[in-house]
Structures are given as structure tokens and as C-alpha cells.
Amino acid sequence: MVMGGAGFIGSHMVDALMKRGEEVCVLDNLSTGFLENIKHWIGSPNFTFIKGEASKIPTPEDYAPLKPIPIYDASKLACEALTIAYAVVSSFKKDRFI
Ligand SMILES: NC(=O)c1ccc[n+]([C@@H]2O[C@H](COP(=O)([O-])OP(=O)(O)OC[C@H]3O[C@@H](n4cnc5c(N)ncnc54)[C@H](O)[C@@H]3O)[C@@H](O)[C@H]2O)c1
Fold this sequence. Notes:
Strand content: 5-15%
Helix content: 25-40%
Largest sheet: 3 strands, parallel
Radius of gyration: 21 Å
Order of helices and strands: EHEEH
Number of strands: 3
Structural class: alpha/beta
Shape: elongated
Bound molecules: nicotinamide-adenine-dinucleotide
């Protein structure tokens, strides 16, 4: 990810990374940068541009149906899945764990 990748220095970094075949994501609020600086990469399969604030880094959960959940909820779901998987693998009845 290149923050400020539509700016002077950032866009040169983007050019160098793209020419190396890297997957590049630019995050820029276009406050002083220009899409013109990176327009030749827009549409490339390994290039993504996100117009946004560096102070709030978007995660895939921000633009996908799955919303972020608290760490407690995530670990609880993981424990339940592991418990059920263990029960199945060990041929235990599920109600032994409840
Ligand atoms: N150009 C130079 O010679 C030079 C020399 C020394 C230091 N620097 C420093 O390097 C940095 C980049 O310089 P540059 O010349 O490429 O500047 P630039 O203004 O061309 O690029 C900065 C980019 O960051 C983006 N940006 C700014 N705030 C943002 C935010 N909150 N969220 C997302 N994007 C944001 C702007 O839209 C712009 O595209 C600056 O901090 C500059 O002070 C530049």
C-alpha cells in the first residue's frame, strides 16, 4: 500500500512497484495529489486506488458484507468451531460439550 501514492514521490514509487510486478494499492485523499499521476495504472488487474484518509486505513471489512467484530466475539466463534470440529473428529456427541 502506498499512502499518498497520487502525489509526486508516491506516484514514482507506484511506477517502480508496478514495473516490478507487485500488487499495489494506493490510498490518497487527493488533497495535493492528482489522479493524473497514476492514471496509466488504473484498470490494471494488480492495481487498486482508494480515495480515503490515511488516518483511517480501510480494511476489506469496510467495503465487504462482513463487518468487523470485536476480538472477544471472534475468539468465541473460533472456540465454538474448534470444539465442534474436535467433537466430530473424535466422534463425541455434541451435547457432551454443552
Ligand atoms: N518532494 C520533495 O522534494 C520532498 C522532499 C523532502 C520531503 N518530502 C516529503 O515527502 C512527502 C511527499 O512529498 P510529495 O512531494 O510527494 O508531496 P505531494 O503533495 O505531491 O504528495 C503527498 C500525497 O499525499 C496525499 N495525502 C496528503 N494527506 C493525506 C491524507 N491525510 N490521507 C491520504 N492521502 C493524503 C496527497 O493527496 C498527495 O497525493 C511530504 O511529506 C513531503 O513533505 C518531499
